[in-house]
Amino acid sequence: MRLPIFLALLLAAVSAQAATIWNGPSVTFTKPANAPSDQAQYQDRMTPKVWITRDETRGIYNIAQEMAYTDASPIDTEWAYGTTVDYATLMYSPWVEWTGKNPAGTLGLNAVVHLISEDIYIDIRFNTWGMQMGGGFSYTRSTPSGAGPATAIAVEYYHSVFDHYFVTRNADEIAKLDNGTFVGWARTGQSFKVYATATPGANSVCRFFSTAFDPKSSHFYTPFAAECASVKASPSWQFEGEGNEVFYLPVGSPTGTCADGTVPVYRLYNNGMGGAPNHRFTTSPATRDQMVAAGWVIEGNGPGLAAMCAPL
């Protein structure tokens, strides 16, 4: 009997050593309502074997290994409440059982997803779950150790009545803009990456909101500490946060250029046209030139014109 017991213990030890815990910086994945699940940007490609997405109805599934959702989806995964600190003692089950057939009931709760065949354990927390047609959802999860700074996507919207632009990386705001809770806004199709956590070389970006021009209220972002302090002192602008509540980005050099591995973010101001201030942030030189031709003013540094620099 000693040999089988020894072998069992040895195999258990090998198995325990093989497990990989992702405890790197957190990232947020968002699939907006009605976004096509067959497009890469709407799939959370965690590993070569696990790509999480959702169709217009039902639950999430692993499009890397299955064509659509079933009661076993996402295949090659199992789920438990808790954190990876206790990953070895958690009780895992298929996603549909873990949710109790009520995905919205998991919002805000700490959980762990186990990628079975790769033996990877990931901290995860669902932020939003679309209950109507459209299949929107979002969650925040951990990344591999040493994965580098956590990034997020800042998505741009346009209000045709106000002729205003707005950009946000906030998952709850993105969901409400997409589902019409915030009336009149639609995606422009433009976006850029931002750092979601404090990163060496990146400034904490301040965000403000003004109701002084209601109903054409507007948001304003600045990565410049002096400008942030100045706007905070204005009674016309309400400070809405910085850092983890907004995002982090490097500023453009004094000549308006950006370092390798980043692209310029141009800041444009409508110069008060339409009776209310508005700013647009874009990484597209063509969009920048189009806005200047329409009377907008560039608020960047030097001849390179970059106000901020977004990671590629």
Work out the count of structural domains: 2
What structural category characterises the helix and strand content?
Answer: alpha+beta
Note poorly predicted spans. Answer: 6-17
In percent, how helical is the residue content? 10-25%
The whole-number mean of residue pLDDT values reads 90
Shape: globular
Radius of gyration computed on alpha carbons: 23 Å
Strand content: 25-35%
The end-to-end distance, rounded to whole angstroms, is 58 Å
* Number of separate helices: 5
Give me the count of strands.
21
- The helix/strand order is HEEEEEEHEEEEEHEEEEHEEEEHEE
Q: Largest sheet, if any?
A: 6 strands, mixed
Describe this structure in words.
The protein has 312 residues and is of the alpha+beta class. It folds into two domains: 123 residues, no CATH class; 161 residues, no CATH class. The protein contains five helices and 21 strands. Strand 10 and strand 11 form a beta hairpin.
Provide key terms for this protein.
312 residues, alpha+beta, six-stranded mixed sheet, 5 helices, 34% strand
Briefly say what this structure is.
It contains five helices and 21 strands.
Write the layout of secondary structure elements.
Elements (H helix, E strand, L loop, with lengths): L1 H17 L1 E3 L4 E5 L12 E4 L2 E5 L5 E3 L14 E5 L13 H4 L12 E5 L4 E10 L7 E5 L9 E9 L4 E5 L2 H9 L5 E11 L7 E2 L1 E5 L7 E5 L2 H8 L5 E4 L6 E2 L12 E8 L9 E4 L2 H9 L3 E2 L9 E4 L1
Parallel strand pairs: 1-8
Antiparallel strand pairs: 2-9, 3-4, 4-5, 6-7, 7-8, 8-9, 10-11, 10-12, 13-17, 14-15, 14-16, 18-19, 18-20, 18-21
